[in-house]
Amino acid sequence: MKVGDDRVEGWDHTVDLEASVEVLADPQHLAMSCSLGRGSRFRAVLGWHATGSGLRGVVASVPIGPGGRTVAGGRLEGPRLGGSLRLTASVVLEHAEDAGPVAPATTGSVLIREHRSWMLEGIGSRFPVEMLDFQKAGIRHPAAAWVIRWDRREPEWDARAAVRLQVNSGHPLATLLADPESEEAALLHTVMRRDVLRDLVSTATELEGFSIELGAWPEGSLGQSLSLLLASVFPDLSIEEIRSLRRDDTAAFEAVLQGTTRFLDPAPRT
Prior knowledge:
This protein is α+β, with helices and mostly antiparallel strands. 29% of the residues lie in helices and 28% in strands. The chain is built from eight helices and eleven strands.
């Protein structure tokens, strides 16, 4: 996985991210700057918002102590992310002491706020993940661990509406998948990644007239997601060469998929 200035390449929904912010300030300096007494307290807060899932939350909220350096950080769960990830670092008032007439006095008042965003690009970065009981939902076969549901007819459609990964909550592996610290879960994630990647890549190569040229598809569309995926997995090949590789050299094609998804590699992917 590669982290750039404005995007995270090679990410997918099974990969958790670590995020942190360093705040260089001490309570006394903050209190003086805000016309507050020495006993005032402040917190460093790191929040997040993912446009792909529509979810938001707080990564960490820690008190700002003496010493001038405070780090607020934590883990973002991959299944809750997607699309553009926006991190917001804030310094907020926790307690005001001897507040002056124009000083902030309300708990939670934001004193400093900074934003930064990254596009999350990779397998599953543009479509939602659902947990549901296959038996109750009437999905054939109810013993399956997951299925990929998507409409291949219109690549111009919004990727989030066209593709959906459904994970069987009634399957014994569902609990295992939810444990990011488990080595067995890490191995299982690589199997899922390869399964999803094979389906997306194989179908894309079968679409008549499909293009991986930059700008060929509308922003946020299924076509754009598939073209970005193919370009990242096969960076030096045209769509015709990818089709030929899949047709004429299956072993090489599978080797690329295994290497891309780190198949059966339990090493951390943060």
